[in-house]
Specification:
This protein is an alpha+beta fold. It has 10 helices and 8 strands. Strands 3-2-7-1-8 form a 5-stranded antiparallel β-sheet. The protein has a 3-stranded antiparallel β-sheet with strand order 4-5-6, covered by helices on one side.
Amino acid sequence: MSEHERDETTPAQASPPRPASAPRPRPAPETAPASSLRKELPAEVPASAPAAAEAPKAEPGPQLTGRQRLVQGLWPPRVTRAQLIVALLLFGLGFGLAVQVASNSDSDSALRGARQEDLVRILDELDDRTQRLEDEKQGLEKQRDELENSSDQAEEARRQTLEKERQLGVLAGTVAAQGPGITMTIEDTKGTVEADMLLDAIQELRAAGAEAIQVNGVRVVAGTYLTDSGNGVGVDGNKITAPYRFKVIGKPQDLEPALNIPGGVVQTLEKEQATVTVERSTKIVVDALRAAKRPDYARSSSR
């Protein structure tokens, strides 16, 4: 059979076509739950699992409250040496502040009962003392600047040495002095003025800035002492009698208020029925001298 004939007979011999049928729905594959999958999969065990499994589990302790944790942190106290030193310093500072507050309160209570004019006088005296200290400070600073800036420092130092020697001579009573100041005269007709009252006057004048003092022809120096001597007073062994005349060199604006403060020298003497007169002057001459004494044992340590 030829190829042409084979082709023509093939359609006749072929089976008739089947009608198309709808595809059958295939059942969906059943999905296993995740828990079963996890059971089926082999678990990967790390190499350290046996060791971790064998380690004993720490039992959790009892839960602490916030207050209990705070108590455990504060007690027992752990104090270092530095903390102890700081605590002592703070205690000392607090004690000092307490003492200062107490002293200030006492001063306030004492001044609260004073009169207005007395308070004004006290304030003026404090201002004068502050100004005097400021003047001394400026003088020292000027001397320092002169020593630093002088072209001939040796000559400047020699000049200042001579000036200091003169000042020390005035304070020691070995040279005469003159300048502004006051004159205080104490009339004691009743004979009630004693040595301690005159000593209080000298100390008050020194505190107010007196630079030279003379009482009835006797020069008052650092080592001056006063004693009661019959109807008079002994000054360094020299007996003086009333009226007691003080010649004082210093700033009059400071010296006079210092004597007239409430409860001061003038009021104390007036209570003893003595009469006190204070006069300011632009020139007071203090000419009573003291002999310079050479010490028997003390020697200068400077070389």
